[in-house]
Design brief:
Blueprint (H helix, E strand, L loop, with lengths): L2 E8 L2 E8 L13 E3 L2 E3 L1 H7 E5 L6 E5 L6 H5 L15 E5 L2 E4 L10 E2 L6 E2 L3 E2 L6 E2 L1 H8 E3 L6 E6 L4 E2 H5 L2 E3 L6 E3 L7 H17 L5 H18 L1 H7 L4 H10 L6 H15 L1 H9 L7 H18 L6 H15 L5 H17 L8 H10 L4 H15 L7 H25 L5 H16 L11 E4 L2 E6 L2 E4 L2 H7 L4
Antiparallel strand pairs: 1-2, 3-4, 5-6, 7-8, 9-10, 11-12, 13-14, 14-15, 16-17, 18-19, 19-20
Helix pairs in contact: 5-7, 6-7, 9-11, 11-13, 12-13, 13-15, 14-16, 16-17
Length: 484
């Protein structure tokens, strides 16, 4: 046993000396017969320091510390000095110089010590069943806690051989008082199924109080029971509250569950998609019928609104073009999808080129050189600008292709320099290098190259595409050779 230097405070006296652990705080002898306020006393020192006196609180003749006035029993009958629990309502864990401390607050009056296994500082100290050293709660649990093989609960193991908790070791099976079915004794008062059902009914009862109308309350209960039959109680407990927003909106707006037209108009297709489980319930119970045409039209209207949101401010040429498209739609000459497809390149041109009034020829050429596939779709907008705003705009396909080729050549050249500077290339970078070389040497654009179409003819590498062979330099082949 080692020795520690301890400062002993006996009411008003302080005694400092070297003593062994759990020995008398006064003389250092063992054994110890009394502990008082974190200090230890042998039989001789106890008789010297604790004299028989009359306690000022209870009036009885008892052994009291020479500088004290109250007996130990009366000192224990005080409120907890930390949490304030009333005297007599808690188990006293320790009596300090400040007063009694309940068993829950005792840990806060201990000094932190280092765990002998993990090295963390902790106030919760336990004795290791193997090394017999002081360890923290986490390390202690590794030795004493495990999952019970009978009830599958993580608890302190009572039977190490069978790995059973105390309740299951005493009695493996018991009867659930609610459903009368057999269950593992470690489950507690009721079986897991009854516990989940109780939680479900409590959730329904609490959520129903949110709604004001009886029709919505009934609908919510029916939905929960339908959902339970489809997915089980556990899923409903986990996700049942996610659909409250839908029923709250129905309760506030319609005071019932409306038809599909009102639902899709208010929630929009994306909103109904977020409440897809509720919509499936409405369809399964034949409460609504989906109108596909209305659904598609509203989806297109939402996409058109998203296109207009890209514009920072209103642009007159876009507004007049949209009115023209609306008139065609009202006359039955076009569909909402065609309106959206015609607006998309027009708004993209205005937003990407930062056009404030109407685009110039240079801005149009620059846009189409980046997005050649939009030439046909943007033709209607260009014709509208010519007829209404008298803009001199033309779509020169040959010039656009030249601008595109020039831009691609510059981009591929820069990329080729970047890849050549790298000593090691990833698989994606090797494919990128192959694509850059094919465009730089042969003018073909292959975005997704393949290694398995590279062939060697008389020791020379070629890339085969559409039955044509394209020469590859030796250094390029050596860079991608590890792929084979």
């Amino acid at each position: 046993m080692g020795t520690t230097k301890t400062t002993i405070t006996n009411c008003s006296m302080k005694i400092t000396q070297i003593r062994s652990q759990n020995s008398c705080s006064i003389c250092g002898k063992t054994p110890v017969t009394r502990k008082f306020r974190e200090e230890y006393y042998c039989a001789n020192c106890y008789a010297q320091w604790f004299k028989k006196k009359t306690c000022k609180s209870c009036g009885q003749l008892k052994r009291i510390h020479r500088d004290g006035e109250f007996c130990l029993e009366c000192e224990r009958l005080t409120d907890c000095v930390r949490c304030g629990k009333e005297a007599g309502t808690f188990n006293v864990g320790i009596v300090t110089n400040y007063g009694a401390v309940c068993s829950s607050c005792v840990r806060y009056f201990r000094e932190e010590q280092m765990c002998s296994e993990c090295g963390n500082m902790t106030r919760d100290r336990y004795r290791s069943p193997i090394t017999k050293e002081s360890i923290c709660l986490s390390c202690y649990r590794r030795y004493t806690f495990a999952t019970c093989k009978n009830c599958s609960r993580y608890r302190k193991i009572h039977n190490q051989e069978k790995q059973l908790c105390k309740k299951c070791d005493e009695q493996l099976l018991s009867t659930c008082p609610k459903c009368k079915a057999e269950m593992a004794s470690g489950y507690g008062n009721i079986c897991p199924d009854c516990a989940r059902r109780t939680l479900l009914f409590n959730m329904i009862r609490l959520n129903v109080h949110i709604f004001r109308n009886k029709a919505v309350k009934t609908a919510y209960k029916k939905f929960i029971f339908w959902y339970m039959q489809k997915c089980g109680i556990s899923v409903v407990l986990h996700k049942g509250s996610d659909f409250m927003r839908f029923f709250i909106d129905c309760d506030d707006i319609w005071q019932k569950i409306p038809d599909y037209a009102e639902l899709v108009t208010h929630f929009k297709p994306n909103g109904l998609r977020a409440n897809l489980t509720v919509l499936r319930w409405l369809l399964d119970t034949n409460q609504v019928v989906v109108d596909e045409a209305l659904k598609d039209d509203l989806a297109e209207m939402q996409r058109i609104q998203s296109l207009f949101n890209k514009l920072k401010e209103s642009v007159p040429c876009i507004a007049s073009y949209y009115k023209l498209l609306q008139r065609r739609y009202d006359d039955g000459k076009t569909s909402l999808k065609s309106v959206r497809l015609a607006l998309q390149p027009a708004i993209d041109l205005i937003s990407s080129q930062a056009v404030t009034d109407y685009p110039t020829q240079e801005q149009l050429n620059h846009y189409l050189s980046e997005k050649t596939g939009q030439i046909a779709a943007i033709t209607g907008f260009i014709n509208h600008l010519k007829s209404v705003y008298h803009c001199k705009l033309d779509i020169d396909r040959k010039l656009i292709q030249q601008m595109k080729a020039k831009r691609l050549k510059k981009r591929y050249s820069q990329r080729l320099v970047e890849l050549y500077k790298q000593t090691e290339l990833t698989t994606a970078e090797q494919m990128d290098l192959l694509s850059v070389v094919l465009y730089s040497l042969h003018g073909i654009e292959i975005k997704k190259t393949k290694f398995d179409v590279i062939v060697l003819i008389d020791g020379v590498a070629y890339y085969r595409d559409n039955m044509k062979d394209y020469f590859l330099p030796q250094d390029i082949y050596l860079r991608i050779k590890p792929q084979f």
